Amino acid sequence: MKLIKFISFLIIIGNLTLTSCEREALPVYPGTIIEIDTVFVKGANLTYPTFSGSDTSADRFYAFSGTSSTDLSSMSGEDWTYELWIKVDTDALIGDANEPSGQTAGGACISERGRIFELYLIEDSNADYAIKYNRLDNDNLPVGTMDSSDSSINLEFDEWAHVAISRSSADGIAKFYINGTLIDSSSDALWIHPVNDTWLDFNYMYRGGNMNFFKGSFDDIRVSYIDRYPSEFEPNHFERHEVDNNTLLQMDLDNNLTPFDPVSDYDKVEIKGIYTYFIQVVNTVFWTSKDYVLPTE
Hints:
disordered N terminus; mainly beta; Jelly Rolls; ConA-like_dom_sf; hydrolase activity, hydrolyzing O-glycosyl compounds; LamG-like jellyroll fold domain-containing protein; four-stranded antiparallel β-sheet; 39% strand; 2 domains
């Protein structure tokens, strides 16, 4: 209750000075911890891009090996994790849950690698949307499917959700998580990925043409050489991933962009990990930065 009162107090006074026990006031900004009546709070910040859903070639957001022939093919087909945070706009494309593939369902793509896997939005009678995860064959037809529509997870528009797919050769199990809850899993060998340099697309899918563009926001994208999540977990959007030797690609998406020289319609996204080529976003993407006040333990 004290924390609630404190937050309200912050909102009301705006830029007025805070004092406690006659000590010099401390500014409130991300990373600073202050004490007010024995209630501890800390600042946090989320910065992220929002995509309009525009379906032009310029609006694509993707990773590919570029001048390197090994970035994406350096991943083992048996050990991997793909994860990201998404916030789905109310006007995003929601696919037909009865259609077998992302191409025919028409739902907005969250992430995909053609002929390997696809993650996209589908209808859910108990929620604003659900997420479908397909393992694809060489014709981009699903040979294995997991989806969240029958799970206890009810996803809402304009709310952040953490999505992760992973597999480990240690237990031979492929897993699909939303907000750290295990949606489905399988020990079938069909979930082993082929090893190649197929593009990693984030906000659209390619099926002979660009389609099913995503409308909404992305944050904290990471691709790893290992199974990061052998069991259920609690994702924390305010904690930055630590880069290690198992990080192929990490994009914190904190608006750390570098314009091309000469300036073009695109900016480079800051990249962490082993991935060597650049990743770009069209420079009309809308960036949001929000500060939060969080309780400490």
